[in-house]
Every structure is written in structure tokens, then in C-alpha cells.
Amino acid sequence: MTDLLANLGLGFSVALTFQNLGLCFLGCLVGTLIGVLPGVGPIATIAMLLPITFGLDPVGALIMLAGIYYGAQYGGSTTAILVNIPGEATSVITTLDGHQMARQGRAGIALGIAAMGSFFAGTVATLLIAALGAPLTGLAMIFGPAEYFALMVMGLVFAVVLARGSVLKAVAMILVGILLASVGTDLETGQERMTFGLNFLADGVDFSVLAMGLFGVAEILRNLDQTETREVVRQQIGRLLPGRAELKQAAPSVLRGTAIGSILGILPGNGAVLGPFASYAIEKRLAKDPSRFGHGAIEGVAGPESANNAGSQTSFIPLLTLGIPPNAVMALMVGAMTIHGIIPGPGVMTKNPNLFWGMIASMWIGNLMLLIINLPLVGLWVRLLKVPYRLMFPAILMFCSIGIYSINSLPTDVMFIAFFGVVGYALIKLGFEPAPLLLGFVLGRLMEEYLRRSLTLSRGDPMVFFERPVTAVLLLISVAMLALALTPKLRKSRDEVFTEA
Amino acid sequence: MTPTFTRRTLSAAGLAAAALVLAGPVSADTYPQRPITMVVPFAAGGPTDIVARLVAEQMSRSLGQQVVIENVSGAGGTTGITRASQASPDGYTIMMGHMGTHGAAPALFKGLKYDPAKSFDPIGLAAGTPIVIVAKKDFPAADLKAFVAAVKDGGPKVNQAHAGVGSVSHSTGILFDSIISAKPTLVVYRGTGPALNDLMAGQVDFMTDQIVNVATQITGGTIKAYAIATPERSPALPDVPTTKEAGLPGYEVSAWNAVFAPKGLPQDVAKKLQDSLAQALADAGTKKRILDLGGTVPSAAEQGPKALQALVESEVARWTPVLRAAAESGQ
User: Fold this and answer.
1) What backbone phi and psi angles, to 5 degrees, belong to A463?
2) Hey, are the CB atoms on A43 and B74 less than 8 Å from each other?
3) Is B17 contained in some domain?
4) What band does A39 get if pLDDT is binned at 50, 70 and 90?
5) 8 Å CB contact of B196 and A345
6) Are residues B78 and B54 in the same domain?
7) Going by DSSP bridges, is the β-strand pair B36-40/B93-98 parallel, antiparallel, or unpaired?
8) How far apart are CA A437 and CA B307, in angstroms?
9) Which residues, 6+ apart, have CB-to-CB distance to A320 below 8 Å?
10) Which residues are within 8 A (CB) of A73 and not within 5 positions of it... i.e. 6 or more apart?
11) What are B37's strand-pairing partners?
12) Pairing state of beta strands B257-262 and B93-98?
């Protein structure tokens, strides 16, 4: 305990220098802005800003880059809530209830609760990293390919639970998502699958392209289709920040979301992706009246947003203690550290205590700054909704196109968002939800990879999924949840509740 | 790199600058007039990207224009290299190729739209990244000889990890298997990170990879190294013997990085780029950073365009039979 305090003391003494505070603020601000812009994600931004950090000392540079990363997570939620475009896989869920809240004129409340929940989650996750970072890495070692496969199966079952429409349609969407994920070069053999000889499909469909098309462009098409409702959204702005009753309603969700997100974030195999989905599914299960979900339930924003932020913080644990980047942004952070002469790995904590504890302290400071930056901005963002739609939709389309082009510099990516936009519009018209499709897409690729890897390691013996305790338990939970979702009585009420008239 | 070489490069650059002043506004002499794009065919943050960024920063200084990194990843780096090879050869698009894109690619990718030896004007070798043979920390073998014997005897019972078709760990791993004539089970990962994670957890037995990716794990004791595949030991891992010392002299391999331009570059533009790259590598700070990563900085004799052209040709000749044979036997 005294060690922890001494370490945190060291961390704060590093993070609270004038220069590092400034860099942290700059990172958070830039992160928030690029997070808000649809398409321009943290990966492109960090890659672009990397050369600028050459002149800085490594600690300052990394504090700034980390600020961009979690700033973008905050900003991404703003776009998800306001214009229904999830910037990353982790904010897909936020669109479900967050955007509904915005349509009901409660955008400010949604943004406020997202910011506050994220701050709370960030604080807890920072403490968790500081106190348990090193011992928790053991958890990463327990999770082999078979465990990850079971985790992904559980994630897909969540997708069935959280869908708004009929079970059948949700399952269909998940399967389409998995199918889309299998487009591209086969990992093990290098053969191309379902690319139809098109070069740009060799690396598969990009998540941002799919998300921006299915959500962003499709949403625009739908709005252009129904001008009246759009006007209603514009006129009702409502209160800017959540009140006491709303905070009380959201608090338990924030707590649960934080716990779920923190645990899943520690897993280096991209477990953080599941955090918001798991949180949403649990909130919906626990709710007295699950029918509110998908129609602007505050718990559906508070829980997943907290899980999202907690996960994005704790995903620094595998990076800092093992040197294993759990996702693409973290891989870029590894590069940034390496360029600055610090190679992340088991030695960082002892060899560069300044860097390690300084970054941890700066995470908390960064979360505080994000709250300070974001709460006043809520008013501004909400006012953005007042912009006439004929001005707003070309702007959104333009930002989407620029953003997507900036990721891979591929013109085909821009054409693809248009394509998926039309597909998304058709799906909405036919009553299919795009969220399960996206979840199937994200998890499908991981699931296939883990399944094949487990079977390679077990030499084709499927018993590997039942012999290992963690795997067996996760699969049992999945079966139980699926059974519950399919029970006739439950399904009947579910269909009544979820199929929109 | 020797001090004389540094001086020579500097004076060459000085002459070039003087020529520029004297000659006035003739187009090639005024190159570069706008930022230069360096295509890196891998995601930002990987070993090739890091070398590219270190070199580009220095080249920007001597060229007087920004050298901007553009990451175009995909298909083992061939997507980015294909695109850059089709750019106009005016010196404003250059690329950071590596052992895979300019050595192993023709054997791995059937419809490859470029020829490593013919579609490019080589600028120069930038850095070498030694390959290290690493295994899970409790692998029973005490030294490389015992390890090789264990991998051979184990046959398909031994699990070898690699980071995907076309990755450095894939081609160098297959070369290793072919040299020791072993047939372990290949376990494929999407990138080095997850592969290393499973190696640390003991899910897989061994892999071969670039020193940058594995050095801290080795010094941290989470995995162990049997040998480094270079003629000399690396200062980053002084305790790890070379393959020659450890009794496997045939396995010498490095994931080199080199700068190329599309074929047809005007000679004076090529010269400027070559000098600028040589100057960047002579810079003490850049050199130190590359060495700190465990990389090697090529000597003046290895560095220039002629040496690079020869290297590319010898690498294509080396990888093609090994990788084709492996593909035919179903690996």
C-alpha cells in the first residue's frame, strides 16, 4: 500500500509538471475533436502526429498520444449519440439508446451521462491499473485460444439478446455479419475468399467502412426520407445535463459497466470490444421494464459508455506490463514508444518507473480534463442539432468521406460507404437491425481465428472446448442465455415488446 | 559507418547544394520542391514503420522538404508496394520495402504486379533487423543444438507460431524448418502481438521473429532465445549466441529495410535521394536509435543502390525455392 502511494506520488510528480499537463490537455482536446469527426479515428491521428512528438521527451509524448486515444473514445460517443455514427466497434451500442435519446430531445442528458459515467469508469480503471496492473497480467496468460473462442460465442449470444427486432431477424443479421467478416485473405492459407477477384477486397471489409455506411449514411437516407421527425428533433432540445433522478437511475448501470469493462479490457485478445455489448445485455436483463431499451433508456447509455471507457483504460495493462498490444491503437502506441527508445515489455515498470507511473497518473488527470472539456461542450454539440439538416447532411457525408479516405487512402473505401449506406437503408426499411450485423462482423473474424487456432493446437479434437474450466463455463452461460431467449413464454413477450408496430 | 564516409557524404551534399545555387532553376536541380511521400506498406507502429519514420525525419532535413509517411498496409506489404511502384518516377513517391515485399513476395503472391528486381530504382539499404529464434520459457532444450533436435524429433507435435502469410516470422520460420528439415505444426496469428502472447503463455513452442519485437521479452525472461541469425552478436542481446556459434551456420537471415523508387527516376534526383539516405544513416542520433532497437546499420559498402540491387536479386533467388516447396507440401 505504501508502495502504491509512493508510486502514485512519483506518477503525479511527473504528470503534474507544467509541460506534461499541457500535453495531456492538448491530447485530450485533439482526441475529443477527432473523435467527434466521423471517420477520423485515433489511429490516423496518432500516426499523423507521431513525427511532431519527436522533439518531445518520451513521457510527454506518450502522455499526449494516450490523451488522444481516450479523448477519441469520449468524442466517438458524441457522434454516436448525435448523428448515429459509431466511430469504433465499442460505440456501436451507444447508438441504440443514445441516438434515440437525442431524437427525443434528450441529447444533452445522454451526452452528460456518457461523460460522467466515463469519468467514473476512468477513475476506477486507473486505480485498478495502479494497484493490480502487474498481478492482473496473470489473467492474460490463462486465456488461450479456446477461452477466447468461448468468449466470442458468448458475445454473439449477447447480440441476440440485445436486438430490438424479432429473434429470427437478429440471428439472420448476425450470420450476415459473420459472412462479411470472412471476406478477404484467409489467415492460414493466404487464399482469397469471396473477393470476386477484386483487389481491394483482399484485406476484407474495413470495420469503419461498414459502420459508417450502415449507420451514418443509412441514417442520413432515412432522415431525408422523413423530414418531419427530423424537424421535431431540431426543436426539442431540452435540459442539457442529467438531473438527480436520472443520475440515480443510471448509477447502478455505471457501476456494473465499469466492472465489466475493466475485466474485459485486461484481456489482450481484444476482449475490450465485448465490454459495452456485455454491459448492455446485462442492463437489459436486469431492467424492470426491458421494453424501454432501444427507445432511449438512460441505462443503455450509462452502462456501455462506462464499460467502454473502463476497457479502453485497462487495455493499457497488457501493453505496459506485457508489451502486448490488444488492438490497433495500442499497436501504434507500441510503435510510438519504440520510436522514443522505450520498448514496451515486462521491464518497463522497473526500468522506466517515471514513464509507467507518469502515464498512469496522467490517465486520471486526462479523464478529469475530458470531463471539464466535455461538459461545457455538451451545450455546443446539442446546438449543432439545430443546424438545418440540408446543411448538416452534406457536412456529415463530407467528413465521413474524408475520414474514411484518410485511413487507407483507398478511393474504393469511399465508394463502399455509399454501397453499405444503401444496404443499411434497405435493411432499416425491411425491419432488420444493423447493430447485430456489426457485432457479428466484429466477433465473427475473431471467433473464426480463435476456433481454428484452438483446433490446430488440439490437433482437431473438439474436446478442447469442454475440458478447460473457463471455456466450459463460458459456453454453458452462452447456452443458458440462448435457451432463455428462445423459451416460448419469454419469446412471446419478447416479440410483443420488441417488434415495433 | 566510418568517419571518412560521413565526411564524404557531407561534402557530396555540400557540392550538390553549391550546384543548386550555380545552376539556377533547372527542374531536376530544384528537386525537391514539394513534400515527398514515403509509402510504408505496413501499419503504423510496426518495425518497418519505425525505421521509415526515423530515416524520413533525417531525410526531411537534408532534402529541405518534408518526407511524409503514408501507411498503406495489406497483403504482406504488397498492396502498398504495388501502388507505389505505379506512381510517377519523379522522386516525389518513394517507398520503404523490406525482405518480404522485395524478397519473399514473388513466391508467396501469385498475381504480384511488380518484379522486385526490375520494377524499381533502388535508393539504398536503410537498416537490418536480425532474426532471433525464440521459444516458450520452459522449453526443455538447453541450447540450439538440443532445440533443433527436439523440433526435428517432435515432428507435428511441436507448435511453431507465425504472424500470418507474408509476415517476416512466416518466411523466416519456413526457412528455419527447411534448413533443419523439420515439420512442426504451424499456428497462425494475425500479427506478432498475439503470437508473442501465446508464446509467453506457453500455448505454442517457438517462433522466429525480428529482434525489435522480442528483445524486451527475452531480457524480461518471459520467453527464451536460442540464437540470433546474424554473423555477429547484437549489443541489444549480448548473451544470445549467433547461429554460427551455436552450430547452425546455414541459418543467417535478416529482415532488412530499404528505400526504393518507381523505375525511371532521373539520375540526379536518384543521386539526391541516395545521398540524403546515406546522410540520414550517418547521423549519430538516428544510428543510435536503430542500434538501440537491436537493428543494424549497413556499412557504406552494403548501403548503396548497386549493393541493394544485388541484395534484392539474391533474396528473391533464396526465398523462391524454399517458400514454393513449403507451399507445395501444404505448409
Assistant:
1) -60, -15
2) no
3) yes
4) low
5) no
6) yes
7) parallel
8) 52
9) A129, A133, A344, A348, A349, A356, A359
10) A31, A35, A42, A88, A90, A91, A118, A308, A309, A312
11) B68, B93
12) antiparallel
Residue of A147, A206, A338 to mutate when probing chain B, most B C-beta within 10 A:
A338
Q: What is the pLDDT of residues B121-142, one digit of tens each?
A: 999 999 999 999 999 999 999 9
Please name the member of A187, A318, A457 whose beta carbon is closest to the beta carbon of B190: A187
Q: What is the DSSP letter of A271?
A: G
- CB within 8 Å: B220 and A459: no
Residues B156 and B116 both lie in one domain:
no
Tell me the C-alpha to C-alpha distance, in Å, between residue A427 and each of A77, A181, A222, A431.
23, 18, 11, 6
H or E stretch including A477? helix A469-486
3 state SS of A379: helix
Q: What is the ipTM of this complex?
A: 0.79
- For residues B79 and B137, what is the distance between their CA atoms, to the nearest angstrom? 36
Q: Which of A439, A480, A496, A354 is nearest to A155 (CA)?
A: A439
Give me the DSSP letters along A108-157: HHHHHHHHHHHHHHHHHHHHHHHHHHHHHHHHHHH--HHHHHHHHHHHHH
- pLDDT tens digits for range A291-346: 888 888 899 999 999 998 898 888 888 777 777 777 777 877 877 887 777 777 76
Q: How far apart are CA A429 and CA A146, in angstroms?
A: 39
B7 shares its domain with B124: yes
**DSSP one-letter code for B156:** G
- In eight-state DSSP terms, residue B225 is E
Give how far the C-alpha of residue B134 lies from the chain's centroid of Cα atoms, to the nearest Å: 18
Reported as type and span, the H/E element at residue A252 is: helix A244-266
Domain containing B204 equals: 131-253
Helices A107-142, A244-266: axis angle to 10 degrees equals: 20
Q: What is the pLDDT of residue A491?
A: 52
CB A307 within 8 A of CB A115: no
Residue B216's closest chain A neighbor by CA? A345
User: Which of B38, B159, B185, B203 to mutate: most A Cβ within 10 Å?
Assistant: B203
- Looking at residue B299, what DSSP letter applies? P
| Residue A339 to residue B191, Cβ atoms within 8 A | no
Contact B245, B80 (CB under 8 A): no
Q: Residue B75 has what DSSP assignment?
A: G
Q: What is the pTM of this model?
A: 0.81
Say if B13 falls within a structural domain. yes
pLDDT digits (tens, 9 = 90+) for B185-206: 999 988 888 888 889 889 999 9
Measure in Å the smallest separation between the Cα of A378 and chain B Cα atoms.
33
Statement to judge: residues B18 and B124 lie in one domain: yes
Confidence of residue B173 (pLDDT cuts 50, 70, 90): very high
Has residue A115 got a pLDDT over 60? yes
Contact check, Cβ <8 Å, A269/B43? no
* Residue B330 domain-assigned (yes or no): no
* CATH code of the domain covering residue B176: 3.40.190.10
Give chain A's count of helices (H) and strands (E). Answer: 24, 2
Flag the least confident range among A69-73, A340-344, B116-120, B275-279: A340-344
> Which residue is closest to B330 within chain A, CA to CA?
A189
In DSSP notation, A300-329 reads HHHHHHHHHHHHHHHTHHIIIII---SSHH
Please judge whether B46 and A331 are an interchain contact, meaning their C-beta atoms are less than 8 angstroms apart.
yes
Contacts of A208 (CB under 8 A, 6+ apart): A39, A41, A87, A403, A404, A407
A163, A177 contact by CB (below 8 A): no
